[in-house]
Design brief:
CATH superfamily of the largest domain: NAD(P)-binding Rossmann-like Domain
Number of strands: 14
CATH topology of the largest domain: Rossmann fold
Distance between the termini: 39 Å
Low-confidence stretches: none
Helix content: 25-40%
Strand content: 15-25%
Radius of gyration: 19 Å
Number of helices: 10
CATH architecture of the largest domain: 3-Layer(aba) Sandwich
Largest sheet: 7 strands, parallel
Oligomer: single chain
Number of domains: 2
Mean pLDDT: 95
Length: 332
């Protein structure tokens, strides 16, 4: 098997590439490097620089590298930006996927597709645990594009005899190594790091939710576990009949509140800066925690890393990315 990994120079993509190659799978990275970093691609893994909107380049890449499966992670992923630039998100995430699928269908050898989806497809679910049957009511253009992507992948697989899977990630954190750390400051863990190292209090958006401590509860998953889930999914698809389709939550099935996470980050980093409570953000659900039952049944996979592992590894990565920052906390 040879897997084309779109977005393979990005944060999650680089971890998937590393996990796939360590598992003995052959990988080819396809990335436009708009946010990806070429140095993340392991030595010996081909890197094709290009957009998923370039159908001709995709077709040539499939042929030149004898690609037999695709892991599609490329795309835009910021919720707030998607509200401001919906047309951009639909072009990159939906039209880009359509062009990619056109190239897949035109290739005689590509038979498997793993699609990077998101828990954002669920919107604000009013359930204790989110199952794959929980209604999908996305609340942002980003979430809409992920749900539309699932529909496109599933319909194409059924029409053309491809085996497909859509993986709905929950809240990703951590790093396998400092050089693979997330360079963005859009998620809770790096946002708290940024505040602490600047001598400011981290923000908690609302403390009056119907949860044990009043703050939102989320399911956090280590990026290394996400990567291993891709390996398990790729191998499952390679061993199943054409037309197989899977939709799976990728989470730990355990909720952690925002207050608990900020307290943990203070502890790991050696800071002691209480969080500042600010107004709720519109659209934040009180609790979003995955049911991880189906993924265990289908793949025999479960997450191995806890939230402390995530914070410790992310802190090491933050130190590598920000070596000039004067720290008042613990050495990374």
């Amino acid at each position: 098997m040879t897997w084309l990994i779109t977005g393979g120079a990005g944060y999650i993509g680089a971890h998937v590439v590393r996990a796939m190659t360590e598992a003995g799978e052959r990988a080819v990275v396809y990335d436009d490097l708009s946010t990806g970093i070429a140095e993340r691609v392991p030595a010996g893994v081909p890197l094709v620089v290009g957009s998923v909107l370039d159908g001709d380049l995709l077709t040539r890449t499939f042929a030149e590298h004898a690609v037999t499966g695709v892991v599609h992670l490329a795309g835009k992923k910021q919720v707030g930006e998607s509200v401001e630039r919906p047309l951009h998100y639909y072009r990159e995430n939906v039209e880009g996927l359509r062009v990619l699928l056109d190239a897949v269908v035109a290739s005689p050898d590509v038979a498997h597709i793993v699609f990077s989806s998101s828990a954002s497809v669920y919107g604000m679910p009013d359930v204790d645990l989110v199952t794959e049957e929980t209604p999908c009511l996305p609340m942002s253009p980003y979430g809409e594009t992920k749900l539309a992507g699932e529909w496109l992948v599933r319909a194409t697989g059924r029409a053309h005899g491809l085996s497909t899977a859509s993986l709905r990630y929950f809240n990703v954190a951590g790093a396998a190594a400092p050089e693979l750390a997330d360079t963005g400051v859009f998620n809770l863990v790096p946002m708290v790091f940024e505040k602490l190292t600047a001598g400011a209090a981290p923000h908690i958006f609302g403390a009056d939710y119907p949860t044990p401590d009043g703050t939102c509860v989320r399911d956090y998953i280590h990026v290394v576990d996400i990567a291993e889930a891709h390996v398990a999914t790729a191998r499952k698809l390679a061993s199943t009949a054409p037309g197989t389709d899977l939709t799976l939550n990728i989470g730990r099935g355990e909720g952690v509140s925002v207050r608990e996470m900020t307290d943990l980050i203070n502890d790991v980093t050696g800071y002691d800066t209480p969080a500042e409570i600010t107004a709720r953000r519109p659209g934040d659900p009180a609790r979003v925690v995955a049911s991880a039952v189906r993924v265990a049944e289908e793949l025999g996979w479960s997450a191995k890393h806890d939230v402390r592992d995530m914070v410790v590894s992310a802190w090491a990565g933050w130190g590598r990315l920000h070596p000039a920052v004067t720290l008042g906390g613990r050495s990374r």
